[in-house]
Amino acid sequence: MKKVFILGSTGSIGVNSLKVIENLNDEFKVIGLTVNSNVDLLVEQIKKYNPEIVAIRDKSSAEKIKDLVPNDVKLFTGEKGLIEAAVSCDYDIFIGAMVGFAGLAPTIEAIKRGKRIALANKETLVVAGEFVTNLCRENQAEILPVDSEHSAIYQCLVGENLSEVEKLILTASGGPFLNKEKSFFDIATIDEALNHPNWKMGNKITIDSATLMNKGLEVIEAKWLFGLPKEKIDVVIHPQSIIHSLVQFVDGSVKAQLGLPDMKLPIQYALTFPNRTQNYFTRTDLTEIGTLTFTKPDYSKFECLKLAYDALECGGTAPCVLNAANEIAVDKFLKKEIKFSHIPGIIYSALNKFVSNGLSDLESIFEYDKKTREYVRTLN
Amino acid sequence: MKKVFILGSTGSIGVNSLKVIENLNDEFKVIGLTVNSNVDLLVEQIKKYNPEIVAIRDKSSAEKIKDLVPNDVKLFTGEKGLIEAAVSCDYDIFIGAMVGFAGLAPTIEAIKRGKRIALANKETLVVAGEFVTNLCRENQAEILPVDSEHSAIYQCLVGENLSEVEKLILTASGGPFLNKEKSFFDIATIDEALNHPNWKMGNKITIDSATLMNKGLEVIEAKWLFGLPKEKIDVVIHPQSIIHSLVQFVDGSVKAQLGLPDMKLPIQYALTFPNRTQNYFTRTDLTEIGTLTFTKPDYSKFECLKLAYDALECGGTAPCVLNAANEIAVDKFLKKEIKFSHIPGIIYSALNKFVSNGLSDLESIFEYDKKTREYVRTLN
Predict the structure, then answer these.
(1) Which of A252, A256, A279 sits opposite B283 (nearest CB)?
(2) Cβ B236–A287 below 8 Å, yes or no?
(3) What is the DSSP secondary-structure string of B236-297?
(4) B254 and B372, same structural domain?
């Protein structure tokens, strides 16, 4: 039986991970659960999964439920508590499901311990890709991607030789604004931006899907996961989200992984790899779906995607600045402080202000993350 | 440098194989060329590729060009000549590209020698699947499929575990009559049946594409190539022929291989496997193709596909009878002796007349093949 630690157990990926583990009964055991602030759901999860350890990032939320945590469950709190939890119990697989920059430090601890990292947290590779992939190599930790696109590529690459890859092709649904004019971005509401056609996800990532920044971040992740330059990573718009991504090889052959939009599949794959385990998820019936379509992304309309490629080319701390500026800009949009159309301009401004120092050590990353956030908070 | 023997070098697969070998210069050397009767092209090929050995099945054709074969090239003729050629020279890879039942016996010789078999000849596995796969195991010969569908499945399976396959999904273009009413089959002309929307192939296989027998034969081949029962082999109509086939795994994940309709790709893969070699074939641009569609096959309209499943279920000599009856029926259609709509009825009649003896040894196969052909030739 494999022991699983979940960083971010109450978010969309965390909840789906627990469902997957339930389906795979007797093969996996939940050891640690950590959350940001959703303590009500955490209490339910503790009852159901009986972990050895829990951590709550938000201290005031932790105060509220302290007495509801059984005595035999170790409780940690605060930013540091996430890290303490990640180093204080024994596990085989670390599911990095916490959204945002906060997921980085605990994930690094799990990597140092040489664990399998089922990685959903985008920031880990986006802001610290070079550092993290080196650390994995040194500690023999393996990253199994838990989003549908990178999992698709990972699956297409089993048994293949990375040196024979000509191109990775990430598919993008195009989000809710695929067929809107650019001028619409000035009047797009929060509800409209959160209305994703295919996937039900958290707010931050859903807005990123509307700007296509989500795909931009995935391009950066793909570079580090698969060790390929940006020229070998393409994006194709595929509104049905059935083909999750593709790999083109040097002989011209293309392999793709397909499935219904359901995060449980890549989560399960990251847990069971190199094996596949029987489940009863709904199967993909292409004859029912009928039609799959593909178009080129419009980089002039979806400027965030272009900015992500630019940051990747720039390297060093640029992806970190891109990510921090985007996170604050999206937050501002969700608080109605800025228009949807302002998001790329803010990121562009941050990238220009904090020119990369060319380094990718953790100190530089934390420094650039912090100062970018401070700067962007002052913008309108 | 690997040595290659081509059974059927002047047909569509043979000619494409030679193009592939030219592209892969210095990696492969043509050692043997054998043909049915197209001696004019054979003479050109001898000049260009300088083989050690050639064989011509049709003795009178051989007579015509005997003097044009250089002295240092060994020449064999007749049905036996094909077999003699296959056992008389040294090679690493045997490309089984001769169409029809005639391709079986020489291929068996190459299997007995434990060679890699790049197999395009459908009959080898359709009529003698059990015998041939056992023989491969005994002699450590490996079959690399050279048609786009089975090559697609083979590529999707590298690095995967066969026991974790839930279903193979063969795609079918649907041929030129996909959108015709069944009543049209009474008046379909040869030219209409030969007008395949995507692939340029020989006449026999093009008619098989119009009846969907081609797909039925591929279902039978898939059973033997991948060792799966017919319940795990599905057919989906995909008129664009871009997704060449798919594999669905027990976790619900689906993998597909894609490419433009070009036989050079699966041929090259069969030669270079487990590696992939750089080439300059046109790449697949999904955004240019735009749309891929999928529908269920209509088994009541395309009765040949249903008959193939029935023969597979029946087992023993039934697939051999199916194949022989089909080969003669198609020949009769191409000679205007029967209507297109008569093909399935003739096959059905043969399957009923020659009930399987349950065996799959070579003698039974040759016996059933012979008597089926004799019987079907008498039908109108």
Answers:
(1) A252
(2) yes
(3) EE-TT--EEEEEEETTS-EEEEE--S-THHHHHHHHHTTS-----PPPP-HHHH-EEE-B--
(4) yes
